[in-house]
Amino acid sequence: MADFHNLQELRHSASLANKVFIQRDYTDGTICKFQTKFPSELDSRIERTLFEDTVKTLNNYYAEAEKIGGQSYLEGCLACLTVYLIFLCIETRYEKVLKKISRYIQEQNEKIYAPRGLLITDPIERGMRVIEISVYEDRGSSGSSSGSSTTSSSGR
Amino acid sequence: MRRSSAYIPVSTAAALLVTSSTLFFVFTCPWLAEHVSLVFPPCVGIVFLFVMANFTMATFMDAGVFPRANEDEDKDDDFRAPLYKNVEVRGVQVRMKWCASCHFYRPPRCSHCSVCDHCVEDFDHHCPWVNNCIGRRNYRFFFLFLLSLSLHMVGVFSGGLLYVLDHLENLWELHATVTLVVMSVSGLFFIPVLGLACFHLVLVARGRTTNEQVTGKFQGGVNPFTRGCCHNVQFVLFSPIMPRYTGKLSDRLPIRIQPPFHQPESHKLTPVKSADNCVSSQTLPVKSLEEVDDPDSEGLTSPPPLPPKPDPVLLKNHLAALEESLLQSRAVMPLGHKMNPLLTSESPTKVLYQVPRDQIGPRISPLVPQEHASDPSLLQSENHAALQSGAPPVNSLTLNSRSLSLKHSNRRGAETLGPHPIQSVLSSRTGSLSYDSLLRSAEGVQRVGYQTPFLPMDMSLSRGPGAHNCSPVFMNISRHSPQHREPSPVRYDSLPKPIMSSIQERREPDEKDKPPLALGPDAGIYDTPNRHSLPHDFRGPSSRGPTPPAYGSREFLLSSAAYGYGSRSHLSSSSSSSLTRAPRTASSPLHFNRSLSPSIYHSLERQSQLPPSTFPSALPTSSYGPQKALAFIRGEERPQPEL
């Protein structure tokens, strides 16, 4: 019996319970910005401040990517002069920032979200319409009560 | 896969462009270089190169196509979710329409291209000459293509003209003939191309898309997407080009998700407590309620341990919805002062008739199937309302705390009342709306009077007889079951528990609406809860100044629909944003507002005809039926062409 219980504990696994979608914030126009409102489904999974930090950082990244300034002028003029062949050669600033965002999300997932049973999907995969947060539940520890908190909290 | 005929315009355009220009360079340019200027042909050549580059980019560049949404993003039943969702963009309400093909609400300025069958960001139009949608990513190329083509045509035409004027005596010679042909082609297409270029110049300056211009979206109103003429031009030409959405996914390391999972600190301390603030403040009322009902429970004085959550999802959703509604209802609190004069009225039954209508909605809408779960939150909200309105908060607390305990006894004490209250209610159109409020409020008041633990209410309650008031009121409720509109006597149904509890819980917000309306316990138990469960903002679609976007939102409907009442009311009285997505054509919010009242009553009538048995389940599924009926009604009544 004890061995069997140990086996169960060894076989912890997570299954996808729910997905939370953080929508875009259009109050400032069509610039890319996500709502920082804390969704109630994540109440029991992650601290509010961590979540808001993540979304605010992402918003800052997108604002930086879409900034119309010196570099975007340079890119535009260069593209015209080279008859847009420049796009084959170099990476635009937007692409660079998107890569930064991707790395940031990866790092956030590894450090903060995955330990809490959450996973952020890069918005670019959803057409920048939503930030998709997958909520996982602890499926494997049904026999023991220690996993009950995660099970119940994600039991939606 | 597009039809092959779709390639005809683009092939024709490309062929014409390349052929004409090549002929010009071959036959006309040598003479021009020699006799006009050496610089002239290279300039034309550069412009031509620019034209071709922009043409190629406009043709082959992804316009900003949104990938289709995954199925799990669309959680709601299609039939239940609204067709439109409102968002506020720089102070202007913009409608986001549900895209049935792509399964998401189209972001502002996004539109679905029927030729390409996808949604495009900042959709301008579908251009047959480049056989591509023109959207956010390639609009600048299309715009520059038009400008540069106009310039190229001017150059070709003027160069050809110079040549022809110099070779007038020998026009049938090959070079001259070719030049004439090229001139005529360029002259023929110059007017439409220049016209289109000027049109787009104006659009760029005004910050509009072709789609918006043609559909007249901002004709009378203000365009929230404009940044001023200079910044609009700057945005079109120099904003960074973002990569396509539908490209290949970047390589990512897989992330391992391994339980056990961390819990937030707050959650670890009180494992059963949700982070929602409402819960902690409502634990006491929960406890008190339970003790009223269950004599075996612990003493009220001890700090109540949180009860085991029978349904944490619903409770949390309910609480979240209540939080939202509370925030909204607080804005309406000034009307709560009307409650005070009510307490001085003669009969207890009349007291609550005049409860401001706007206090109803938020608190009513999230009607939780679980009585215990709903009571604390409603108590909380009612307390807030009462506090802010100046009425003794104890009243609502009293009413609610007693509601559960008394509902059974009241139900059993049925006696018939005279029909006159019914008729007085029926006489007024809006009477039905106040029926429930009157009903519920009267009920609650009666109940308080029945056991008078709290002094503030004794004043009004003392005027009324004690026990027997309850039963008539109660009977009024049962009598005004679904057929409230009909003067014929209503059947006496003994209402199931959830309805009764919901009736009592909802009593207070009741209506500022038609205070003098006589008591009519309402048949609209089924109707009026819905009507009154609206947040106050729903109430006046014509009065929406800064309309919050959430009302028509799917999330709002989802949370309230889970409790079986709110969704119906939302459908009945909210604006077009609450129109269901599926087969309905949606009218604009303004149109809908004007026709709102008839639809409300129509829907209420339909709802009133529902059998009581469908009501108490209070499951989302049970609310779909009436919603579907409502949607169907609306669709039939106001067919309008889709924009």
Comma- or semicolon-separated keywords:
heterodimer; A: 156 residues; alpha+beta; 3-stranded antiparallel β-sheet; 15% strand; disordered C terminus; B: 643 residues; mainly alpha; two-stranded antiparallel sheet; 26 helices; 7 strands; elongated; Ras_palmitoyltransferase (chain A); membrane (chain A); Golgin subfamily A member 7/ERF4 domain-containing protein (chain A)
- Main-sheet strand order of chain A equals 1-3-2
Number of helices of chain B: 26
The major pleated sheet of chain B works out as: 3 strands, antiparallel
Sheet with the most strands of chain A? 3 strands, antiparallel
Shape assignment of chain A? elongated
Oligomer: heterodimer
Low-confidence parts of chain A, pLDDT < 50 over ≥5 residues? 143-156
Structural class of chain A: alpha+beta
Number of strands of chain A: 3
Q: Which structural category fits the helices and strands of chain B?
A: mainly alpha
Fraction in helix of chain B: 40-55%
Radius of gyration of chain A: 21 Å
- Per DSSP, the total helix count of chain A is 6
- Give average pLDDT of chain A, whole number: 82
